[in-house]
Amino acid sequence: MNVAIRYAAGSDIGCNRENNEDSGYAGARLIAVADGMGGYAGGEVASSTVIGSLRSLDTGAPKDDLVEILGRAVAEANEKLRIVREERPDLSRMGTTLTAMLWSGDAVALAHVGDSRGYLLRDGELFQMTQDHTMDELLKAEAEQAGQQADPAETSRLSHVLYRVLDGREDREPDLRLREARLGDRYLLCSDGLSGPVDAQRIYEVLSAEADPQRAVDRLIEQARDNGGPDNITAVVADVVEPDHVTGNEPPLIVGAAAQS
Ligand SMILES: [Mn+2]
Where are its TM segments located (predicted)? Predict the structure, then answer.
């Protein structure tokens, strides 16, 4: 089936931070969010390096092997981080999350590393497509396998500790999946600056209420700020529509740190 995506993106520094280390991208074939970290300029460099590296996927001709193409692009982005780290020892602690989707018709590949999130609004229900690579999720999964309950104090203490990011080191494999998009689907990629202060119920309400993708993005960011906005906030929304519902020549959107570089 031939489909197109109508997209919007936004990024906000939030209420407490002095710089925006998130980067986001939205184009006709690629959407992505990266949440950089690592002190002094490191996060901005990491997230914008990875988004800059992935961008070329948006302009290439539609292809098969979407998952393989996206997986390889993530490995190349990680390799670029390794090179930057070698050139800039002051940025040795930098790293970034990445959640990205690559379309070809109604086939879509999803790549995910870290604790940014991908959500799908379909048939009036909101699904979280990604699992956070945080220590508390790891502990919970281990406890479940052992038929036990994870210690709540321990999991809450570790809820922001990432066990996997892209940082230019080896073995930074993303979770990779192939999905089928349907007409009417609405996808949201966001950094934890949105999914932290704004719960899934509220995200669902805003995504359901705002038909226009840019208005949905703006309202989600506003919600995160109203709830304290402790972190940088980035959101990308993509609606799956019939091809004649988009003109096909909208420019891609780049937001956050990647828009500065
Ligand atoms: Mn963040």
Answer: none
pLDDT for 62 beyond 70: no
Note residues around ion ligand 1 (Cβ under 5 angstroms). 35, 191-193, 231
Task: Determine which helix (DSSP H) or strand (DSSP E) holds 203, and give its type and residue range.
Answer: helix 200-209
Residue position matching structure tokens 């704004």: 198
| Counted domains in the chain | 1
Q: Return the CATH number at 244.
A: 3.60.40.10
Domain limits for position 200: 4-260
Q: How far is ligand 1, taken at its centre, from the CA of residue 163, in Å?
A: 15
**How far is ligand 1, taken at its centre, from the CA of residue 86, in Å?**
25
Q: Is the pLDDT of residue 247 over 90?
A: no
28-46 pLDDT, tens digit per residue, is 999 999 999 987 789 999 9
In 3-state terms, the chain is what percent helix, strand and coil (to 5)? Answer: 35, 30, 35
- In tens, the pLDDT along 97-138 reads 999 999 998 999 999 999 999 999 999 999 999 999 999 988
Radius of gyration of the chain (CA): 18
